[in-house]
Design a protein that fits this description.
2 copies of one chain form a homodimer. Chain A has about 180 residues and is mainly α. Chain A has 2 domains: about 5-85, Winged helix-like DNA-binding domain superfamily/Winged helix DNA-binding domain (Arc Repressor Mutant, subunit A, Orthogonal Bundle), CATH 1.10.10; about 95-180. Helices cover about 60% and strands about 10% of the residues of chain A. Chain A has 8 helices and 3 strands. Chain A has a two-stranded antiparallel sheet. Chain A is elongated and about 65 Å long. The model of chain A has no long low-confidence stretch (mean pLDDT about 95). At the A-B interface, helix 1, helix 4, strand 3, helix 5 and helix 6 of A face helix 1, helix 4, strand 3, helix 5 and helix 6 of B. Strand 3 of chain A pairs antiparallel with strand 3 (about 90-95) of chain B, so a sheet runs across the interface. Chain A binds a DNA duplex (28 and 28 nucleotides) through helix 2 and helix 3.
Chain lengths: ~180, ~180
DNA sequence: GCATGCATGTAAGGAGTTACATGATTCA
DNA sequence: TGAATCATGTAACTCCTTACATGCATGC
């Protein structure tokens, strides 16, 4: 079967118990969003489609007068999740405006390139902070994979921040024009 | 001024001399595409818009009967490029299907998680190979920034591949269920 | 003569974000 | 009572990719 990218995040988020759209969204925001985001504009229409395809099942579960629909995987949905997890990953995409600016920095002063690197570094440091905050969540998960991924994210952002720091020094020490000579 | 993301790649690619759309596309494919891609479907319409906005200027430059239009930055275009380069970067996006699969791997066997990591590792190793092939291009550039970015890309993909290797060992050594205990 | 590369473009569609609209509940 | 949180959903829009269409030039 060939589902939309977002469909798999949803199936995955339902892997150990029912959840409503709102909870799926916040689970994503507190975990996968650093490498796989999803917005309400995708989630709700996708829940409907998955439901129609028989991969998930919704059950009304109002809290008082506030309505709420809880979705859970069907057998078919669990099968589809497993078969996707066993296929090799295809998508790896990076979109880094900082690197793009750095790439073109021959058109500006070395100080400007250094400022770009500084901004990049600060961004990655901030992500590290945020990930450390989330760590307790991941620790509480049913299996160890979310924690493994989270710790990977911390190391990854630290590596990136360190790279930025090194390059900042390089760029200020020997401006690019000299280095290329 | 507020231009589309693709607009800046184009302005940047014109930073040291005129180029036609086809050349911009192949320059992107041989350099920035690993962190900032662009397709013909974006490039040609954007060239028109930038031209209408007075940031670039097209000059017909047919090669025999094969038509060709060469674009170069106007003074305004060069100004806009510089002002963008001096603003801090905003976009950093990662979309990694492998990490997503790994995150949900509690639903499959440890061997499946290891297979995902192996595929990820192979991908990053292959990118390293490809980047090494491109290295001579970057070395030839007018300033040192493209080379700095390229070498960063090599280190980055090597780091990722190594991380995958480490995690592959971890996952096989102590399955996730135990680790979380 | 044919494949590959050079060169320009468009149409259709998929994917995703933002902003909006609506309304209940909870807690300070 | 008012802010934050829970909860569902849609409309408009941007961005981007893929596939197609066209045709000349070059080199084997």
């Amino acid at each position: 079967m060939d589902l939309s990218p977002t469909a798999y995040v949803i199936l995955g988020m339902l892997r150990d118990g029912p959840r409503c759209g709102y909870e799926i969204k916040s689970a994503v925001d507190n975990s996968t969003r650093f490498f796989w985001a999803a917005s309400y504009g995708q989630i709700y229409p996708e829940l409907r489609k998955l439901s129609e395809a028989g991969l998930i099942e919704g059950r009304p579960d109002a809290r008082g007068d506030r309505k709420r629909v809880e979705f859970k995987l069907t057998a078919a949905g669990r099968g589809e999740l497993g078969s996707w997890l066993r296929r090799p990953p295809e998508t790896f995409e990076l979109r880094d405006e900082g690197l793009l600016k750095l790439f073109f920095s021959g058109a500006v002063e070395p100080e400007d390139a250094a400022a770009t690197l500084r901004a990049m570094r600060e961004h990655h440091r901030a992500v590290v902070e945020r990930l450390r905050e989330i760590e307790p969540n991941a620790t509480a998960a049913g299996d160890g994979y979310p924690l493994l991924v989270l710790r990977g994210g911390i190391e990854y952002n630290e590596w990136l921040a360190d790279w930025c720091e090194r390059m900042e020094r390089d760029v200020l020490a020997e401006p690019a024009e000299e280095r290329s000579a």
